[in-house]
Amino acid sequence: MSFLTPLYLLGALAVSLPILFHMIRRTPRGRVPFSSTMFLEPSPPRITSRSRIENWFLLLLRALAVCLLALAFARPFLRETEGAGVQEGDVSWRYVLIDTSASTRRECVQDELESALDELLDVFDPRDHVAVATFDQTVQERISFEQSAAIDPAQRRQVLAAEVEEIKATWQGTDLGRALLTAAEMLTEATTDEPAPGLQEVIVVSDLQRGSDLTALQAYTWPENVTVRLVTLGEECAPTNAGVSPVVDPEAAVEQSVRVRISNSSDSKRETFRLQWPDDFGGTDDPQATPDGAVEVYVPPGQSRVVRVKYREAGHQPRRLVLSGDDQDFDNTAWLMQMSRQQVRIVYVGSEPADDPQQMRFFVEPIYSSTPRRDVEIVDWTGAGDQPLAGDSDPQLVIVTDVPAPDQAKAIRGYVLQGGTVLFVARTAEQAASMYELAGTQPMPVTEADVADYVMLTDIDFGHPVLAPFGDPRYSDFTKLHFWRHRVIDLQPFEEARVLARFETGEPAIAEIPVGRGRMFVFASGWQPEDSQLAVWSKFVPLMNLLLEYGSGRSDAVRQYEVGETIDLAGLAGGRPLTHVRTPDGTVTPLPDGANEFTSADQPGMYRFQPGSDSAPDDSITVPVNLAAAESRTAPLAPEVLEGAGVILSEESRPESAGESELRERQLQNSELESRQKMWRWFVTTAIVILLLETLLSSWLAGRRARQAAGEAN
């Protein structure tokens, strides 16, 4: 018998205390005054009855109870039952995770992968249950436990080896936390109904770089019976690695430059690198960088620097920037957003003066101001012979706040039918009736709403692209916006009209009406101070710019995408149909009908979304997709980081000495045996029974002595 906490056995020494107390010879303590003792003979003190053990059986019961309690606290277990635990030769459950993220594209990692997997397959017992999966940002199961069990054990190694040979590295990031969580859950689910599942192990074959994402493990409790073995690749790789990634820079077109971040690995041996423009002028993709315009960058190991690099040729924006000077080149290219300054024309159909703060026209310039990304021109169309819609370049938006003249109405209707966007603001009930003429439908009566004090908005459609950014709980409070006056507009003639917001009285406040290939937005109230608080509302400027971007298909926002991220086509297209995508390798693929997202950005480079299979670049939307910046952090991930996240590492994967590892393994085995046997319960139960017996016996003996004493007294 062995003990998990043997120091508690010292408590058994307490059994000697009653015996010692009983065996101590007592001498008279009191002094009695006496006149003279010279005539008395000396005699030794006589032992009283208290110095003798009256009942040996009662003493043994008490001593036995103390000993049993001491044994129980020492948590005993039998080593001869250790075979019930996990031993060599038992059937095991193994879930193999193979890293295919971008950092494993390094040649030194690929050279070690095949041999590491061969060694791993060689040590598997034919009886073992084995599943294989690859992971990057997602987990792809290649062979499940059920599929593995259906394979002939004699042929399983060949099948696994054939499947492993088909595994190729991707360009995506490394979500190690999600992969470990998935593997642990799959093991737990597979062994739920197994009476003695044996060893349950997750085997991670990876370069284990510091850029791995472990976020998924933060809220996860790791199963106590699942261990993780680490098979580290790339330990012989040259340590110097730096990566380059673009930084959002709205002023790139104005500054004729681009900002990029260079990150140097913490175990790097170099500090100086070069940024160069590839020689891709003239439509070639020659990756050989030229020394013209090269920038020397100093980045200490483990740090990053943001630098601005001027274009090599004014007015020409290169598509990419290349880093050189490190040992690995998989992360040395930054694909750049084409940051041309947009020319935006807005036609305003209204008769109000532009300098009157009580009129809507006064607020148009502040709403649509020029930025480094766009140059805004606002054209006032008063109807005096001007034809701003007749030129070669259509405006991005037409705002109507007055009753258009017949020639204006005809031009506006033709503009919207061809795909233009009109914002119709109902300033008065009489003016609002002209909306039906622009939409080409039967006119309906429009009335002024009866508002006692003010009304607010309700039933806001946050699913619409114009209002979607306000769906975040931080921005979705519209209660501070009050309307003093508004018009009651009947939308029954428009079957496809979409109400984006209503007044709390139920009337439409903002609506979108499809007209031909274009659309007309209708505001039932204006933003002049006598109508509402729209002009001073904090969300009004973003709302109006979102409406412009949605209608024109051009966004002033700059969005950088990484490999594996979902590209928002609805935000890019702004309502324009996009039917095809040209990937970086030149392949043109049709998009699903009505697709609002693109989820197949599986390699870095330029993705061109087109309205047709052979559309010109000017008619397309080009989106650069870059490698995840975290993949450049190729320094090894310390095993202590995984243990800190709650993962239980196998003995060979722990960063401990051989003696510490062996001691810890023995302690874990002892704890497992003791927790399974629970012998302490039997010792405690026996001690309680003995104490009850001792209590009954002592009560009976005390009663007998009392009866004897009473008989002698009589």
Automatic annotation (TrEMBL):
<feature type="transmembrane region" description="Helical">
    <location>
        <begin position="56"/>
        <end position="78"/>
    </location>
</feature>
<dbReference type="InterPro" id="IPR011933">
    <property type="entry name" value="Double_TM_dom"/>
</dbReference>
<feature type="compositionally biased region" description="Basic and acidic residues">
    <location>
        <begin position="651"/>
        <end position="670"/>
    </location>
</feature>
<keyword id="KW-1133">Transmembrane helix</keyword>
<dbReference type="InterPro" id="IPR002035">
    <property type="entry name" value="VWF_A"/>
</dbReference>
<dbReference type="InterPro" id="IPR029062">
    <property type="entry name" value="Class_I_gatase-like"/>
</dbReference>
<feature type="transmembrane region" description="Helical">
    <location>
        <begin position="6"/>
        <end position="24"/>
    </location>
</feature>
<keyword id="KW-0472">Membrane</keyword>
<feature type="transmembrane region" description="Helical">
    <location>
        <begin position="679"/>
        <end position="697"/>
    </location>
</feature>
<dbReference type="InterPro" id="IPR024163">
    <property type="entry name" value="Aerotolerance_reg_N"/>
</dbReference>
<feature type="region of interest" description="Disordered">
    <location>
        <begin position="650"/>
        <end position="670"/>
    </location>
</feature>
<protein>
    <recommendedName>
        <fullName>VWFA domain-containing protein</fullName>
    </recommendedName>
</protein>
<keyword id="KW-0812">Transmembrane</keyword>
<feature type="domain" description="VWFA">
    <location>
        <begin position="95"/>
        <end position="235"/>
    </location>
</feature>
<dbReference type="InterPro" id="IPR036465">
    <property type="entry name" value="vWFA_dom_sf"/>
</dbReference>
<dbReference type="Pfam" id="PF13519">
    <property type="entry name" value="VWA_2"/>
</dbReference>
<dbReference type="Pfam" id="PF07584">
    <property type="entry name" value="BatA"/>
</dbReference>
